[in-house]
Structure formats: structure tokens, C-alpha cells
From TrEMBL:
Source organism phylogeny: Bacteria, Pseudomonadati, Pseudomonadota, Alphaproteobacteria, Hyphomicrobiales
Single GO term (MF): NADPH binding
GO cellular component terms, semicolon-separated: cytosol
Cited NCBIfam families: PRK10754.1
Organism: Roseibium aquae
Protein name: Quinone oxidoreductase
Presence of keyword Oxidoreductase: yes
Annotated ranges, domain Enoyl reductase (ER): 11-323
Length: 326
């Protein structure tokens, strides 16, 4: 028997319960892994609260990313074997000491990257990869705005975009987070609690505005994000930490400059095995080279998931957070 965090009814952090579960043997195309670290992400709170419905209903085990050691593989699995260090972004179920999952979601972790780093960077790091490299290919000519610059994706994206030569503008909610963002690649940082981010973007860019705005905040930054874009610029809405946007008006894009808008997700970008390997490989390379650091800013015991979720939703965390299975 092993333990996991389960949700029997949606709600606040209090619905997260620490329970004994049974983990079976892997079937064809599957692998059983023993977690050494598990990533905490804002999307975990969406499934817990019911904002995103659980694909297989309740009860559910939250969590989409982790790292660990392969314990056993099922029939037809030949790209990994027992004893391999692996990491993944995959189906729900990461908040567990052990689990079985599709083996094609697992990638081997290079020797130069430790388990906590791997667990904490897979979802956030591969999100940064597709945002900067595919959704809008960032170059040295790019001027971009990234909301929640001191968050997990934001800190990785700031470093990566700076490495690509972009002018990187970020928004944060405190002076402490502003200092953190500046230390992670941001050329300019705006404290949205004390400054109007739209007016500051206009000042910083001398009225040119941004080529692309990356927005994981949602309700609180809309429609201001659109006003930060140059004509034919791109608004990338990839999250909603402040709540969903319920009044999006497609007709606004015309008078605001024939803007483009998209709502991408990581899972569409890594659906095929080849895309997963390419995305993870690009991330592993940029981290191993030292161009991007993954700072572990918080660690919690897995059994303390309630506290971790409360801290995350209370905006008390910065950067990357991992759970350590007991």
C-alpha cells in the first residue's frame, strides 16, 4: 500500500485528503514509477475547485507532473526500463507516492538535472518553451509583456526570453516579486498594485507597445492586455489565476489594432511522442547549459498539500514549488 492526496468533492484546500491507496502492476504500454518529487502548479487548484472538471470524475488524485524512478514496465515498453530516472507531464494522478501511467508520457532525465528540478520544471518549463518558441517565436527584435513575472512559468520565461535577446517586460504584485523578476531576465518590471501597467508599457516602449502579451492572470488583466499590443500584435491567454474571462468580445480585436488572440495549452503541444521529446529536449538543453535556472523556492511534504494550495492561491509563493513524498 502507498499514500496519495485525493479529492472526493470539489472545493477549497480543505477537500485535499491524505489516504492509503493501492497501486497495481503496469499493463501493456504502461509503467509504474516511485515518485521522488512532484510539481505544484496553479492548474492543480482548478481541478480541485471544480473550475476544470476531472476527466474521469471523482474521486481524483490531482497533479500533472513529477519525477521518479521506474519500478516496472508493461508489455511493449522499450524506451525505458526499471531503474531509469524519468519525469513527465501527464494525466492527473501525480499527488501520490507511486503511480501507474502511460509510458509514452515519460522522458528520461539527463544526468546533469536532479529530480527536484525535473519535477518542478516539466509543466512550467515546457509551457515556457511552447509560448516563446512556437506560439510567438521570440527573437532579439521582440518586445513582450509577461504577466505574473515572478510565478513559476514567468521566472523561466523571463530568463529564456532574455537569452533569446528580447526586451522583456513583466508585471508583479509586490516589490519583493519585482526584485525576483529583475534577477530572472526582466528588462522592466511593473508593480500592478502601485502602477497602471498599460500606461507604464506605453512609457517603456515610447508608444510602440508590445509584439506579444503572455497572460495567465485572466480577469484582472483583461482587457488591459489588449491595450498593451501594437497593431497586429498577439494576445496569448494561457491561464486564469484571477478568475475566468467571461465577457471576451471578439469584435474588440479590430478597433484595438487588428489584433490576434489565442488560448493555447501545453497538452496540445506535446500530444505526440515526437513533440513531447522535442519540447522536453529543448527545455533540458537550455537548463543544462545554464541559460535558464530552475530555483526551488518552496518545498512541502506531500501530506501538507492543503497548506501548499492555500499558499499558492494566497500568492505567497514564488517560482517553483515541489512536494516531497514521505
Amino acid at each position: 500500500m502507498t499514500h496519495a492526496i485525493r479529492v472526493h468533492q470539489t472545493g477549497g484546500p480543505e477537500v485535499l485528503t491524505w489516504e492509503e491507496i493501492e497501486v497495481g502492476e503496469p499493463g501493456a504500454g504502461e509503467a509504474r514509477i516511485r515518485h521522488t518529487a512532484i510539481g505544484l502548479n496553479f492548474i492543480d487548484t482548478y481541478f480541485r475547485s471544480g473550475l476544470y472538471p476531472a476527466p474521469n470524475g471523482l474521486p481524483l488524485i490531482p497533479g500533472n507532473e513529477g519525477s521518479g524512478v521506474v519500478e516496472a514496465v508493461g508489455e511493449g515498453v522499450d524506451h525505458i526500463k526499471a531503474g531509469d530516472r524519468v519525469a513527465y507531464v501527464g494525466p492527473l494522478g501525480a499527488y501520490a507516492q507511486e503511480r501507474v501511467l502511460p509510458a509514452d508520457r515519460l522522458v528520461k532525465v539527463p544526468d546533469g538535472i536532479d529530480d527536484k528540478t525535473a519535477a518542478g520544471m516539466m509543466l512550467k518549463g515546457m509551457t515556457a518553451q511552447y509560448l516563446l518558441r512556437r506560439t510567438y517565436p521570440v527573437t532579439g527584435e521582440t518586445v513582450l509583456l509577461f504577466h505574473a513575472a515572478a510565478g513559476g512559468v514567468g521566472l523561466i520565461a523571463g530568463q529564456w526570453a532574455a537569452h533569446l535577446g528580447a526586451t522583456v517586460i513583466g508585471t508583479v504584485g509586490s516589490e519583493e516579486k519585482a526584485a525576483l523578476a529583475k534577477a530572472n531576465g526582466y528588462t522592466h518590471v511593473i508593480n500592478y498594485r502601485t502602477e497602471n501597467f498599460v500606461e507604464r508599457v506605453k512609457e517603456i516602449t515610447n508608444g510602440r507597445l508590445c509584439d506579444v502579451v503572455y497572460d495567465s492572470v485572466g480577469k484582472d488583466t483583461y482587457p488591459g492586455s489588449l491595450d498593451c499590443l501594437r497593431p497586429r500584435g498577439l494576445w496569448v491567454s494561457f491561464g486564469q489565476s484571477s478568475g475566468p474571462i467571461t465577457d471576451f468580445n471578439l469584435a474588440l480585436l479590430g478597433p484595438k489594432g487588428s489584433l490576434f488572440a489565442t488560448r493555447p495549452t501545453l497538452f496540445n503541444h506535446i500530444a505526440s511522442r515526437s513533440d513531447l521529446e522535442m519540447t522536453a529536449g529543448d527545455l533540458f538543453d537550455v537548463v543544462a547549459s545554464g541559460k535558464v535556472r530552475i530555483d526551488m523556492n518552496q518545498e512541502y511534504k506531500l501530506s501538507d498539500a492543503r497548506t501548499a494550495h492555500a499558499d499558492l492561491e494566497g500568492r505567497k509563493t514564488t517560482g517553483t514549488t515541489v512536494f516531497l513524498p514521505e
